[in-house]
Amino acid sequence: MKTLVTTLLLAFALNAQTPTAVEILGKARNVTGAGAIKSLSITGERRMTVEAGGVARMVSREVRMDLLLPDKFLRAERLDLPGGVEGPTLVEALDGDAAWREIKGADVHGAPSKIDPNEARATFLRYALVFTLTAPQGSGITFGMTGEDGGAWIVNAKGPKQFALKMFFDQKSGLLDRAEWTGGVLRLSDYGRFSGVLLPRGLNLSVSGKPPEDFEIKSARINPGLRQDQFRK
User: Fold this and answer.
1) What does the DSSP 8-state code read for residue 18?
2) Domains in the chain: how many in total?
3) C-alpha to C-alpha distance for 37 and 220, rounded to whole angstroms
4) Of 125, 118, 100, which Cα lies nearest the Cα of 110?
5) Which domain holds residue 147?
6) Terminal CA-CA length for the chain
7) Which residues contact 19 (CB under 8 A, 6 or more apart)?
8) 1 in any annotated domain
9) How far is CA 127 from CA 66, 131, 181, in A?
10) In the chain, at which residue ranges do the beta strands (DSSP E only) sit?
11) Which terminus of the chain is more exposed, N or C, with fewer CB under 10 A?
């Protein structure tokens, strides 16, 4: 009987020390100031390994990401041409339930084409959750605790169309350390302040079947006054 009581008391004490998902996210927003983000414009450098003719080489590309809550996202990446010549820009965007892609610039311009809106929305939601630590209005995202792992609290985000994201928060700093989903991991590092908001300057992305890649944030504008029509085609 004494052993049973002791076990129950220990279990109660452990549960009392485990914060809820709401508390973990609230602490992270307080530490970073991310709750103030309604829109975000990021520019940085993407570094990755590409293989051509059996030869692997490291390339870097300039990337801009614009995010406008609750449902708009745009990613523009400068492509390379043979000989190291600066190439056109690949633009992919989400505008509510519509998603599109086009290539423009450097004497190249392809007509906009539709892309899978579910995939585009999943990408938007991952970045929205990572940077704002808040479920976009109308997204249907809910949060729940799934335990702890190696000094990190695990918050599980779930949404429509089987969207799922595990978010790992450092128990000491309260900062988001990494995010995982089926087939992918995004690791965050080197937090720094941009216009008063703490954001990860380093992002390392690993996706099944692809070489890992790094993204370094060079600049970030918080609530820069993005126009809705720039996400539309």
Assistant:
1) S
2) 1
3) 11
4) 100
5) 21-231
6) 70
7) 27, 145, 153
8) no
9) 10, 6, 12
10) 39-52, 55-68, 72-81, 85-95, 98-105, 108-109, 113-114, 142-149, 152-159, 163-170, 176-181, 184-194, 197-207, 213-222
11) N
Contact 18, 145 (CB under 8 A): yes
Containing H/E element for 127? helix 117-132
Which amino acid is present at 160?
A: P
Query: The CATH number of the domain where 168 resides is what?
Result: 2.50.20.10
- pLDDT tens for the chain, 233 residues long, are 545 444 433 444 445 478 999 999 999 999 999 999 999 999 999 998 877 677 777 888 999 999 999 999 999 999 876 666 678 999 999 999 999 999 987 566 667 899 999 999 999 999 999 999 999 999 999 999 988 888 999 999 999 999 999 999 999 999 999 999 999 999 999 999 999 999 999 999 999 988 899 999 999 999 999 999 999 98
Q: Is 97 helix (H, G, I), strand (E, B) or coil?
A: coil
pTM exceeding the 0.90 threshold for the entire prediction? no
Residue 6: inside a domain:
no
